[in-house]
Write a structure and sequence with these properties.
The complex is a heterodimer of chains A (about 350) and B (about 140). By secondary structure, chain A is α+β, with helices and mostly antiparallel strands. Chain A has six helices and 21 strands. The N terminus and C terminus of chain A are likely disordered. The radius of gyration of chain B is 14 Å and the shape is globular. Classes of the chains: A alpha+beta (about 350), B alpha+beta (about 140). At the A-B interface, strand 8, helix 2 and helix 3 of A face helix 1, strand 6, strand 7 and helix 3 of B.
Chain lengths: ~350, ~140
């Protein structure tokens, strides 16, 4: 499924939002149930990072139909909590940028089964409204097997993309939208269900390559990426992205976010960065690495260099906040890849 | 029910491709192909005309693949076809996720013969290779 995809993500003091242009039928952030008649309009995600904890909020919206579909999102670490997201956070973030740009726009033979039958470990399962959420731990083959066995249709680029992410962080979120359940709940076309993941992590990176999953090389990918960090970030992996806003987040924005359900952790001050993605799918072969401590962003986090054996950011104890960040060293040498905050807005399917 | 039928079909394919294909003849040579990240490895093979090759395809991906060997007509039919799994025809075999399968194919004339996967999007993604058939 290739339809317009939207990502809104915030990671580690970052808020990232992405909006991806629609496509036909096989890529819903990568994975879509076969023969699905439901079109996922967009997946909006907000992840925020404060005190070493990422708050990842995403919203799935659909266009109706009679089948299930789902998507898989790479995560920087193991969520310690999965709950229903706030009521207006994503909308408020979108409004923060739309309002400004509305003004600017006005001016401008099978015999042997290999040991590859690896099994992904299901770390967490949760049902939120009509969404079945599963947090998986495993390598690319294991997660791919799980997805296939659960009715997801993987596009030919899926093995490479899953491996790209699994090398850094073998944690994935699988989300399946049950259209029947949505109808029974009275959810209409375009209605979204926000989810909120709390992820202890040390460094932020924003998955960009996932936006191109299932798309032809020349297909355009358009996305909005919002970052909220405790300081002005240094970014790596800007090919295909353009920085639109980089400024101190307004008090009104932070207040509005803080007063939403489950958003009391939003600090008094944050740096707001707004990036737009506008590129061909073939150009998006990397991620967005973010540094908030003045050091150079990790080339591993950006996907420019291979990570070592995958580790999980949950090994990072978020309680130990007195230690200075050592993530660049860890990422470069051990392959510890922790995603900070990201808000993704994406459209899968 | 569909799953049972599919399983039966796959079993049939597996049984038919476990050794030399009766219509492909006894293999003169075995070529091992790996399907990984939706690519074949190797992508270039050289054989002499008149050679019957047994292709052993090891699918290391978590998704299904297939190996189709043949002329343009064969590839055209498969690229636009709707056959999700293949009966044991020489040069045609389905390799489901994680499976190792085999098929045989006789290269009669000198020239170039393409081998490829024609599951939706796989050929365009680059899952293909060439057999150079020498005199």
């Amino acid at each position: 499924m290739r339809t317009t995809t939207r990502f809104l993500g915030v990671l580690l003091g970052c808020l990232v939002s992405a909006v991806v242009a629609a496509g036909p039928a096989l890529a819903c952030g990568g994975l879509v149930a076969p023969n699905g008649t439901v079109r996922l309009l967009k997946t909006s995600t907000l992840a925020a990072y404060a005190d070493g904890v990422e708050h990842y909020i995403t919203s799935f919206k659909f266009a109706g139909g009679g089948a299930e579909l789902g998507s898989i999102v790479p995560l920087p670490g193991v969520p310690t909590e999965v709950e229903r997201g706030g009521d207006w956070t994503l909308q408020r973030l979108t409004r923060e940028t739309q309002r400004r740009f509305a003004v600017e726009d006005a001016s401008a033979g099978g015999t042997a089964r290999l040991s590859l039958a690896a099994k992904a470990e299901v770390l967490l399962e949760k049902r939120i409204d009509a969404l079945d959420l599963t947090v998986l731990k495993g390598g690319a083959v294991a997660v791919g097997n799980w997805a296939r066995e659960h009715g997801f249709n993987l596009t030919p680029d899926a093995p490479a993309v899953l491996e790209f992410y699994a090398q850094r962080s073998p944690i994935f979120l699988a989300a399946r939208f049950d259209a029947k359940a949505a109808r029974e709940r009275g959810q209409g076309v375009g209605d979204g269900t926000p989810i909120h993941l709390t992820i202890p992590t040390r460094t932020p990176w924003v998955p960009i390559r996932i936006l191109a999953l299932g798309r032809g090389e020349a297909e355009p990918v358009n996305a909005d990426v919002f970052l909220l960090t405790e300081r002005r970030p240094t970014l790596l992996g800007l090919r295909g992205l353009r920085e639109e806003i980089s400024e101190e987040a307004s008090a009104s924005l932070l207040f509005d976010l803080r007063t939403d359900k489950g958003m009391g952790w939003v600090p008094q001050k944050m740096w707001f960065t707004y990036l737009t993605v506008g590129a061909r799918a073939s150009e998006l072969d990397h991620d967005l690495a973010i540094s908030v401590d003045g050091s150079a962003p990790s080339r591993v986090d950006a996907g420019y260099e291979l990570a070592g054996p995958p580790t999980i950011s949950s090994v990072f104890d978020p309680v130990d906040r007195s230690r200075p960040p050592v993530w660049p060293f860890v990422a470069a040498t051990v392959g510890l890849c922790t995603v900070t905050g990201l808000v993704l807005r994406r459209r899968l399917g | 029910m569909r799953g049972v039928a599919l399983a039966a079909l796959v079993a049939l394919v597996g049984g038919g491709c476990g050794g030399d294909d009766p219509r492909g003849g006894v293999a003169d040579r075995t070529v091992e192909l790996t399907a990984r990240l939706s690519r074949f490895e190797p992508t270039v093979i050289t054989v002499r005309a008149g050679t019957t090759v047994r292709f052993v395809v090891r699918n290391e991906d978590p998704i299904d693949h297939e190996l189709i060997v043949g002329d343009d007509e064969v590839h055209g039919a498969h690229e636009t076809g709707t056959e999700p799994y293949h009966l044991p025809r020489p040069g045609e075999v389905t390799a489901r996720a994680g499976e190792t399968v085999s098929t045989t194919y006789r290269f009669d004339r000198p020239g170039e013969v393409v081998f490829a996967c024609h599951l939706p999007g796989h050929f365009a993604y680059g899952m293909r290779g060439t057999v150079h058939v020498t005199a």
